[in-house]
């Protein structure tokens, strides 16, 4: 990856993080804007937008730090565990999903329902599975488990600061840009580095073979 491509990825991810945060804030933090509508105070509304823009930048940077950390962790895991790296990732995925339900529910106030915690884990898994499926389809089947690990385990780790507050509004405000940024980075990486699928590699080999045969015939 060239520095130019990295800067483009960095800036695009920043923009997506800010945009996702701003859009989400209109729904989960609507009171931050509505209080300045009557009477209308443009400067206060602008200040609120500026605040959420800064929050979006922070969320985006957290996402990018997690992404590049995982690229290193994945290589380290492959060199350390080799063929066992995928099973290790599956175990960690299961543990994190269990943690999202069991440990958070244990810390909940007495009488709380377990349904919201189950829903959170289920939505994260379904979303991560869908993104991982697309990643594997665009690259190769071996990319599925690492992609699922990133979308579930790494996203959850990035989400921990807000998870500890157990504030639904802030949890939603952070998870949306994290998922948007993580999805974008995961699905755009192979395009940036010029990864070719097995089918593309096979087609390229066939073309090279045909060109080689054609050149030989011309020489004869």
UniProtKB/TrEMBL annotation:
GO terms for biological process: positive regulation of sporulation resulting in formation of a cellular spore. Pfam families: KbaA (PF14089). It comes from the Bacteria. The keyword Membrane applies. InterPro entries: KinB-signalling_activ. Keywords: Membrane, Transmembrane, Transmembrane helix. The chain crosses the membrane at residues 46-72, 84-102, 114-131, 143-164, 170-189. This is KinB signaling pathway activation protein. It comes from Salirhabdus euzebyi.
């Amino acid at each position: 990856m060239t520095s130019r491509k990295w800067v483009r990825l960095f800036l695009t991810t920043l923009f997506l993080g800010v945009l996702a945060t701003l859009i989400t804030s209109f729904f989960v933090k609507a009171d931050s804007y509505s209080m300045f509508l009557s009477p209308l105070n443009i400067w206060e509304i602008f200040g609120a937008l500026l605040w959420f823009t800064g929050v979006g930048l922070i969320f985006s940077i957290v996402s990018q730090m997690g992404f590049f950390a995982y690229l290193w962790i994945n290589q380290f895991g492959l060199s350390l565990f080799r063929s066992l790296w995928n099973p290790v990732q599956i175990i960690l995925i299961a543990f994190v999903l269990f943690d999202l339900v069991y440990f958070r529910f244990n810390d909940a106030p007495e009488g709380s329902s377990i349904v919201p915690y189950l829903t959170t884990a289920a939505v994260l898994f379904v979303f991560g599975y869908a993104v991982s499926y697309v990643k594997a389809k665009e690259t190769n089947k071996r990319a599925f488990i690492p992609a699922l690990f990133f979308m579930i385990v790494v996203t959850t780790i990035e989400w921990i600061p807000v998870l500890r507050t157990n504030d639904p509004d802030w949890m939603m405000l952070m998870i949306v840009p994290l998922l948007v940024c993580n999805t974008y980075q995961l699905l755009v990486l192979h395009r940036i580095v010029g990864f070719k699928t097995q089918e593309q590699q096979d087609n390229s080999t066939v073309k090279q073979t045909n060109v080689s045969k054609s050149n030989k015939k011309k020489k004869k």
